[in-house]
Every structure is written in structure tokens, then in C-alpha cells.
Design a protein that fits this description.
The complex is a heterodimer. Chain A is an alpha/beta fold. In chain A, helix 3 crosses helix 4 and helix 6 packs parallel to helix 7. Chain A has ten helices and ten strands. Chain A starts with 6 loop residues before the first strand and ends with a helix. Chain A has a single domain, classed as P-loop containing nucleotide triphosphate hydrolases (Rossmann fold). Chain B is mainly α. Chain B has one domain: Up-down Bundle (Methane Monooxygenase Hydroxylase, Chain G, domain 1). The mean pLDDT of chain B is 92. Chain B contains six helices and no strands. The chains are: A alpha/beta, B mainly alpha.
């Protein structure tokens, strides 16, 4: 494509089990830095489950077991010495439904930097909050009411606030699980524009059910089906001439 | 290819092929009649071809609207997307073939008012060959037959060679007898139009290949030599 890319995350033969049920059946994937990677596939294909492996969100589910290797910058993120909380500061996440804390707009963004001790002073913290809100393209809309509750914002604003919160800890990777499915088209466009800008500094991985959204925002697309990645390629290739019959059927809306 | 979950989408895709075939049939008929008007020195038929061109133009405008609606409303992907985009390009190519057939008919009107010369029969042969390629490429489209499409694509070189030979012949006539310049120029335009139609047929071949295979056919198509050496004018003796 237009710029050289380094590999940010490598997964090798990753399996995920929920009790007896094998949700991911051996996924090996390389996720590039400064690239938006889209995961697409029908419901239950494992794309969200796999996304959650990338910052160990699945650790919170008792019956969930992950095997195989996932490396961030060459280091195993499931290694004994890795603190999942520290990991999640490096690998941020934005969810389907905007979920701001029941706190002020300011405190929503300041929360992560505070618990990770990223600011030495109030001025530092102010700067991080402003920078994050600016990066999330919501600063102008909230700068005069930073003390107002985050839950009082519109859906689209809440989602951008959550993105600001996710990037306040200066992560390297941003995981987004259907970040626009609860948003109207204008808010969606704003978030997509934001994703486009975030790519300069982060590896962004987005799970989406919208083919058009995957096509619009990503450079690489992985097609998940029944716990496997059937096809992983340049987004332009996937949407004009996919190699796999199942990919073709899925993206063109045919019976599979 | 399995069916779409939304059945109306399948119906619209089917309609694309039907409309292209209809336009193709009309373009082929226009070409056929234009050639007949030349062969039979039939100015009345030539006038009919000229008048009928608006039908093809109308079909193209309608098709374009239909295809743009489909892009906007269905947002086709992968092979469906290739199908719609290729059809848009094929439709405008067929419309141009129609324009060239009309232009040939215009020349026919002039030619019919003058003495026939020997080269006319070479042009008729070239016309038949061109029409055959157009007909075959339309069959290839209807059947999504890439082998036939590639065959048309490679055989256009024969048309190019016929054109070059007619070109040389006409230049020779014009140098021999300057009274023939007007007539030969008209014939040259007819030959050039046929040569262009052959090129359009190869373009449709490329579109068929793209629809089916998802990648371009490439640019290694055999082409006729550039005109090469022309007969030299006789030295002028003052």
C-alpha cells in the first residue's frame, strides 16, 4: 500500500474454548502497525472472541481458555509476568455500546492516566485530557462542560468520549468491537474519520458487521468463519475479488 | 453461483445481462445493415440505420440510470460489483459501436452516388469479419465464456491487418488518380470505423474476462503493425 508497515501483533495457532465449546479453532494472523484491520464474518464466527484475546479481555470469563501464542511487539502477552491491566493500557478497547463511566467528562478521560500514574501534576493531567479529547474529535463540543456527566452526551459523543478515554493511556493498539452499530450515520462518519486519523499513531483493529464500513475504514480485512480465518488480504482485494468462495458468498449476501 | 438472500437483487443482476444483450443485438444489427447499405448500394437502408441510432442511445441512457441506481441501492461487492461496473463500460462501448455503424451509413450515402471501385469488396470482407467478432463477443458475454472472449481478443489483429492493406491500396488509388480522392477518403473512413469497432470488441472481451476472473486480461494483445511503409509519391516533374 502507501507506506511500509511493521508487524504489531502476531498470533500463532490460537484456540479459544468456552468450556467444551471451541470458539476459535486455530487462528494465525499478523496485524500490522499503522493499519486499520477489519474483522468481518457472520455472527458466531469468532471475530469478537478473537479480538478480545488481543488484550486478554477473555481472562475475565471463568470458563474461557486460550491456547497458542499472541505476541505484541514480539512479547508473549499471555506470559506469566504480564499484568493484564498494564497490557490493556497498551491495547485499548472501544465497545459496541458507548459505556462512559457515571462520572464527569473530565474524569472519564482522566481515569486511565490516574490509575496508571501517567501524569505528574494537575497540569499534566489537564493536558492529557485535552489532547485525548482533541484526538477523539470531541474537544470543541465538550470543552465548556468538562464537569458535566459523560452519560449526558449524545450517543455519538459518548462513543467519541470512550475513544478519548481509550487513547488517554497512550495505547499502541486500539481494538474496536462494532463501535458504530449504535450510532446514526453522521456520528458513524465522525468515528470513521477518527479511525482514519488514529491510524497514523496506532494499529487499529475493528470488528464490524457492516461490509461498507469495513471497506471504507480498513486497509486489511480478515474474514472469519466458524472459528477460522478463511481469508486475510488487502481490503481492496477482498471486496473486489476475494479468493475464497465463502468470503464471496458472505460479502455479496448469498446463501452459504 | 448461489442465489442472493435478497431475491430482488438476483432479478436486477439478471436484468443487467438481458439489457446488455438487447443493446448488443441492436448494435450488431445496426452494423450489419450499415454493411448491407454499402454492399447493396442501398441509400434508403443507410438512412434507416442513421435514424435508428437514437434507439441505441436511449437504451444506453436508461441502462446507465439503472446501473447507477443499483450501485447506490444494492451496494454490490466482489463479483456483483464487477458485473455492474463491467456492464456500464460495455453499454457505452456498444453505444459507440452504434455511432460508428451510423457513420458508416453516412459514408454509404456518399459512396452510393459514385462509381464503385475495386477496393469496395475488400471493405465488405473486412466488414463481415468485424461483424463476426462483434457477434462472437456478444455470445461470449451471454455465456460468460472467457475462452471465446480471448479468441475474439486475439483475432482482432486480422482486422488491423485488413485495415492496413486497405489503407495502402486506397493511398495508391489516390496517387494514381486524384479524381478518386473524395471517394477513397470516404472508403478510408469506413475502413477506419470498422477497425475501431474491432477494437471495441476486444475491449468487451477484456470486460468479460474481468467479470469472470476478477483480474485484467493484460495488455499483450497482438496488434497490427503500425502502417509501416507507404507507397512513395511519384517524383514531381514540373
Amino acid at each position: 500500500m502507501d507506506q511500509t508497515t511493521d508487524i504489531k501483533i502476531v498470533s500463532r495457532d490460537v484456540h479459544v474454548y468456552y468450556g467444551e465449546n471451541e470458539a476459535i479453532k486455530g487462528v494465525s494472523l499478523e496485524i500490522e502497525d499503522n493499519t486499520v484491520t477489519a474483522f468481518i464474518g457472520p455472527s458466531g464466527c469468532g471475530k469478537s472472541t478473537f479480538l478480545r484475546c488481543l488484550n486478554r479481555m477473555n481472562d475475565t470469563i471463568d470458563v474461557c481458555r486460550v491456547t497458542g501464542d499472541i505476541e505484541l511487539d514480539g512479547h508473549d502477552i499471555y506470559a506469566r509476568e504480564i499484568d493484564p491491566v498494564q497490557l490493556r493500557a497498551r491495547v485499548g478497547m472501544v465497545f459496541q455500546k458507548p459505556n462512559p463511566f457515571p462520572k464527569s467528562i473530565y474524569d472519564n478521560v482522566a481515569y486511565g492516566p490516574r490509575i496508571h500514574g501517567l501524569a505528574d501534576s494537575k497540569a499534566d493531567l489537564d493536558a492529557i485530557v485535552e489532547h485525548s479529547l482533541r484526538r477523539a474529535a470531541i474537544w470543541d463540543e465538550v470543552k465548556d462542560r468538562l464537569d458535566a456527566p459523560g452519560t449526558g452526551l449524545s450517543g455519538g459523543q459518548q462513543q467519541r468520549l470512550c475513544i478519548a478515554r481509550a487513547i488517554a493511556t497512550a495505547p499502541e493498539v486500539l481494538l474496536m468491537d462494532e463501535p458504530c452499530s449504535a450510532l446514526d450515520p453522521i456520528a458513524t462518519a465522525q468515528v470513521e474519520e477518527l479511525i482514519h486519523e488514529l491510524r497514523e499513531n496506532y494499529a487499529v483493529v475493528i470488528v464490524t458487521h457492516s461490509m461498507q464500513q469495513a471497506a471504507r475504514v480498513s486497509q486489511k480485512t480478515a474474514f472469519f468463519h466458524l472459528g477460522l480465518v478463511l481469508e486475510y488480504d488487502e481490503t481492496g482485494k477482498i471486496f473486489t475479488n476475494p479468493d475464497h468462495e465463502k468470503t464471496q458468498q458472505y460479502i455479496t449476501g448469498r446463501f452459504g | 453461483m448461489s442465489k442472493h438472500i435478497v431475491t430482488a437483487f438476483d432479478a436486477e443482476l439478471q436484468s443487467i445481462s438481458t439489457r446488455i444483450s438487447e443493446m448488443g443485438g441492436l448494435a450488431e444489427e445496426q452494423l450489419s445493415q450499415a454493411l448491407e447499405a454499402i454492399r447493396e448500394r442501398d441509400s434508403e437502408l443507410a438512412a434507416e440505420v442513421i435514424a435508428a441510432d437514437v434507439r441505441l442511445d436511449k437504451l444506453e441512457v436508461d441502462f446507465e440510470e439503472f446501473a447507477i441506481q443499483m450501485l447506490a441501492l444494492r451496494q454490490p461487492m466482489a463479483n456483483d460489483l464487477r458485473e455492474v461496473v463491467a456492464a456500464l463500460k460495455i453499454a457505452s462501448t456498444l453505444e459507440r459501436i452504434g455511432d460508428l455503424a451510423k457513420n458508416i451509413s453516412r459514408r454509404a450515402t456518399y459512396l452510393n452516388e459514385n462509381q464503385p471501385i475495386k477496393v469496395s469488396s475488400s471493405i465488405v470482407r473486412m466488414g463481415n469479419q468485424t461483424r463476426l467478432l462483434v457477434s462472437e463477443v456478444l455470445d461470449a458475454y451471454a455465456a460468460r465464456d472467457t475462452a471465446l472472449a480471448v479468441s475474439v481478443w486475439t483475432r482482432d489483429v486480422e482486422i488491423d491487418e485488413m485495415y492496413n492493406s486497405i489503407f495502402r491500396e486506397l493511398i495508391t488509388y489516390m496517387m494514381e488518380d486524384q479524381h478518386l480522392i473524395g471517394l477513397c477518403s470516404q472508403l478510408l473512413f469506413v475502413a477506419k470505423n470498422l477497425e475501431r469497432i474491432g477494437d471495441h470488441a476486444t475491449f468487451i472481451s477484456e470486460m468479460i474476462y474481468y467479470v469472470v476472473e476478477g483480474r485484467p486480461l493484460g495488455d499483450s494483445r497482438p496488434k497490427g503493425e503500425p502502417l509501416g511503409e507507404l507507397p512513395l509519391p511519384r517524383p514531381f516533374h514540373g
